Amino acid sequence: MPETDLELLIRAARAAGAIATRYSGREAQRWDKPDGAGPVTEADLAVNALLEQMLPAARPGYGWLSEETEDNPDRLDRDRVFIVDPIDGTRSFAEGSLTWAHSLAVAERGVVTAAVIYLPMRDFLFSAATGTGAFLNDTPIRVSEPQTLADAHILAARPNLLPDHWIGRAAPVFQREYRPSLAYRMALVAQGRFDGMLTLRPSWEWDIAAGDLLLREAGGLCTDRFGTALRFNNNLPRLAGVIAGGTMVHESLSAALDPESTGFPAL
């Protein structure tokens, strides 16, 4: 039988891990991107080169969107597109952490249909395809459903709790924790290890595309900060943040956010 998109992404993610783990994070060459766009290492570029060769060769009709490739508007004319972050959590990689990830997705007409988030240093492979559920190393995963928001453990960077974001100028009460890779945060919520996550900053599609499908297939809700379903392969591949979790967590966080907040730069 022909290889499915998910099988292709899994094979590519493991190949990416084999490349990336040849580099020592602290010793890998590192550069800062222009305009404060963050760091990039030689490992990011090596993984990107592998994936850009491997994935389009297997699916020549698909478009390509990657953090480490200059954007080509031709992708906008394709029904299906690969959306790739070669290493999500580059700062963590450069610091020698274990929590960076490869994030790979296929979107069809704006909706993600196959997704993989792979942490090679921990051999955690999260995967999902439309209608088949979400998995961690072949074991089904499901979002958690705490009784109240106050009981919930939410992954969020500290600036998301600034009062300007919230109705009544106060964030709701919950247990805040943090992990540096946005893709890994979304996977952890899909797994049920944490009850929800939010980022209110504008977010690049390659950081969140794979996590969006994982969360939905794990029974969760995943939207932008305004409660709108995420759509991918946009002209500007950036979305208005992410709120994700089980039904109660998602609805509680959404209801508490001030829709008029301008605490972070507009898209």
Percentage beta strand:
25-35%
In helices, the fraction of residues equals 25-40%
The name CATH uses for the topology of the largest domain is: Fructose-1,6-Bisphosphatase, Chain A, domain 1
Number of strands: 16
The order of strands across the largest sheet is: 3-4-5-6-7-8-9
Rg: 18 Å
The secondary-structure class comes to alpha+beta
State the fourth-level CATH superfamily of the largest domain: Fructose-1,6-Bisphosphatase, subunit A, domain 1
What number of domains?
A: 2
CATH first level of the largest domain: Alpha Beta
Kindly report the average pLDDT value.
92
Low-confidence residue ranges = none
Major beta sheet summary: 7 strands, mixed
Keywords: Magnesium, Metal-binding
Protein name: Myo-inositol-1(Or 4)-monophosphatase
Binding site for Mg(2+): 67, 85, 87-88, 207
InterPro entries: Inositol_monophosphatase-like, Inositol_monophosphatase_CS
What do you see in this structure?
The chain is an alpha+beta fold. The protein has 2 domains: 5-140, Fructose-1,6-Bisphosphatase, subunit A, domain 1 (Fructose-1,6-Bisphosphatase, Chain A, domain 1, 2-Layer Sandwich), CATH 3.30.540.10; 149-256, D-Maltodextrin-Binding Protein, domain 2, CATH 3.40.190.80. It has 6 helices and 16 strands. The strands form 4 sheets. It has a 7-stranded mixed β-sheet, with helices on both faces. Strands 11-10-12-16-14 form a 5-stranded mixed β-sheet, with helices on both faces. Helix 1 runs antiparallel to helix 2 (42-58). The longest helix has 17 residues, at 42-58. The radius of gyration is 18 Å and the shape is globular.
